[in-house]
C-alpha cells in the first residue's frame, strides 16, 4: 500500500523508520528491557519526524502564548523553530509535508514511543490523511513551569503510522469466563513461570539468554505450537523513497503487491476502459476500487497500455 509524503518546493523534512532501540533500554542491567518483545515492536511501529534544528524552550506558567519562550540554536532557520501559538503551555512544531494514506486509512500522530522527555509531553492526534490537503502541527505540552527543555537537531519530535478508519467501531468488546484450552494453557504457563523463577534463583543461569523463557518472543503457545504464521519478533519498516523514484512496473512487482485475481481483474478493466477511450486518471480510480494501492493501480494502467495482458496473468 502507498504511504506518501508530498513536498512543497523547499520542504525537506527529515523522516526515518523508527528504531527498536532506546537509550534508557540500553542502560538497563544486561539490557534486559529488550527481552520485552511488545516494547521492541512498539518502538519500531512507525516513522519518526526529526527536529530540523537545536532549540530550548521554557514555560513561565501562564495560559498565554507569550508565556512559552523559545530560544533557537545557532544557525537555525526561522521557519524550522517551534512556536507558541495556542497558549496553555503548548509548544507547536510545523510539519513540512502532506501525508497521503490509502482510502479508509488515517494517520496516528504522537510522540516517540517509549521515550519520555523531562518536563514536557507529546500530544496525540488522529488525522484523515486519505483526503486532507492540509498540513498538521505536532504539539507538545509542558508539564512543569519554569523548567527549560532542550531538543537537538535530529531528535525525534513526531511519530506517525497509518491506522484503519472505522475498524475500532466494528469491534464488540465484552467480558467472558476463561475456560477450556485457554484456561489450561494459562494455568500451565503460570505454573511454569513460577517454577522457572524458583529454579533461576537456586541456580542462576550462566548466560543472559537463559534468564527468561522466551515463549511469547518465539511465538510458541504452551503446546509448543506456533498458532500464527505471521508472528513478529522484529519490525523493520522501509525508509521513504527519495523524490523522483519511479514505481516498479514489472509483472513480478505487480504480482507481489496484489493477488493474481486482483491483477487480472484490473487488467481486464483497463483493457475495457482503453477500448472505450477512458482517460488514465479514470482508469486508475477504477483499478483502485478493485483493492490495489494507487501506485500499483498506475503501474497496471501503464503496463496494460504498453504490453498485453498475457504477460501479467
Task: Please provide a written account of the structure.
- The chain has helices at 23-26, 37-43, 167-170, 180-202, 215-218, 251-256, 260-275, 280-288, 294-306, and strands spanning 4-6, 15-17, 47-50, 55-59, 68-72, 90-94, 98-100, 105-110, 120-122, 125-127, 137-142, 148-151, 156-164.
- α7 runs antiparallel to α8 (280-288) and α8 crosses α9.
- The chain is flat, with a radius of gyration of 25 Å.
- Mean pLDDT is 88; it is low at 307-313.
- Helix content is 27%, strand content 19%.
- The strands form 4 sheets. Strands 2-3-13-8-10 form a 5-stranded antiparallel beta sheet, with no helix packed on it. A 3-stranded antiparallel beta sheet has the order 5-4-12, with no helix packed on it.
- It folds into 3 domains: 4-170, Deoxyuridine triphosphatase (dUTPase) (Deoxyuridine 5'-Triphosphate Nucleotidohydrolase, Chain A, Distorted Sandwich); 180-213; 251-311.
- It has 313 residues and is an alpha+beta fold.
Number of spatially distinct domains: 3
Fill in the CATH topology of the largest domain: Deoxyuridine 5'-Triphosphate Nucleotidohydrolase, Chain A
Shape: flat
Give the topology string: H per helix, E per strand: EEHHEEEEEEEEEEEHHHHHHH
Helix content: 25-40%
Q: CATH class of the largest domain, anyone?
A: Mainly Beta
Total helices: the number is 9
**What characterizes the major β-sheet?**
5 strands, antiparallel
CATH superfamily of the largest domain: Deoxyuridine triphosphatase (dUTPase)
Question: What is the percentage of strand-forming residues?
Answer: 15-25%
Q: Tell me what the CATH architecture of the largest domain is.
A: Distorted Sandwich
End-to-end separation? 21 Å
Strand order in the largest sheet:
2-3-13-8-10
Structural class: alpha+beta
